[in-house]
Amino acid sequence: MTHILAVCNQKGGVGKTQTTISLGAALADAGATVLLVDFDPQGHLTEAVGLRDLYLDTGPALYDALLDPARHDITTLIRQTAAEQFSVIPTTYKMALADKALYMAHGREERLKDLLAGVPREVEWVLIDCPPELNNLTDNALYAARRALVPIQAETSSVRALELLFDQIESIRRGLKIEVEIAAIVPNLVEHVKLSGRILDELRASLPAVTPFEVPKRQVVREAWDAGRSIFTYKPSEKAKREDRDELIAIYRDLAALVRARVADPVAGGVA
């Protein structure tokens, strides 16, 4: 069975792309077959996994398949990376036109779902890196996945953004008559200061989907990104950076285990 998860938050800078890559790497490290979908027109995931050159590719791409899923085979869009155990559907510059192109399209919210129906059966996890907007692309991702993972920062603006995302999900539920579950809310890029601790305490007290752990802000993540690798395959030369990397790997393994448990048994902690 293929599980689809939309990694979303309309607030930029919360680490959606890094969370998608690191969770995908953790799931693959545990033996799962994983496909990442770069659904953000900015193409950050495509760049961060070492496929930067594909962003300017002029051939058939995710944008074309999204506009006409029936005429495209999704398997032709899947790419392998040089270093990672997961595969990727990269995005290209053309995706910047997708939101507007979908606006008047019939069944626009269902396009990605229809396209992902062609994913090979052996793929166990599809992780969709969403744009930092509440638009037709995010609607497509949520409709296709029916489950969301939400990275947030422990700051007041992120909490407000979370409320807007919940409103969007509720709108999709009512308008499209589907259920969308929150598989996990992941505090990310956390710096251990007094304000962060207070906000995390409040979030955990009110939202059972918030993970019992948080992902600290570490420079090694930026270095891995620049090298086109996940933290699972990046090998820093400095001992302190290796220790930071190992700390993050352990956290993302915990996140992968938590997501597996909540997706298999939503009562274990996800919220509807």
| Domain unit count | 1
CATH architecture annotation: 3-Layer(aba) Sandwich
Structural class: alpha/beta
Q: Order of strands across the widest beta sheet?
A: 3-4-2-5-1-6-7
Taking the sheet with the most strands, its summary is: 7 strands, mixed
Jot down its keywords.
272 residues; alpha/beta; seven-stranded mixed sheet; 10 helices; 7 strands; disordered C terminus
In short:
The protein has 272 residues and is an alpha/beta fold. It contains ten helices and seven strands. It has a single domain, classed as P-loop containing nucleotide triphosphate hydrolases (Rossmann fold).
Written description of the protein model:
With 272 residues, the chain is of the alpha/beta class. The protein has a single domain, classed as Rossmann fold. It has a seven-stranded mixed β-sheet with strand order 3-4-2-5-1-6-7, sandwiched between helices. Helix 1 crosses helix 10. The longest helix has 26 residues. The chain is globular and about 50 Å long. The C terminus is likely disordered.
Give the arrangement of secondary structure elements.
Layout: E1 3-7, H1 16-29, E2 34-38, H2 44-48, H3 62-67, E3 79-80, E4 87-89, H4 98-102, H5 111-116, E5 125-129, H6 136-145, E6 147-152, H7 156-176, E7 181-187, H8 194-206, H9 219-226, H10 239-264
Parallel strand pairs: 1-5, 1-6, 2-4, 2-5, 6-7
Antiparallel strand pairs: 3-4
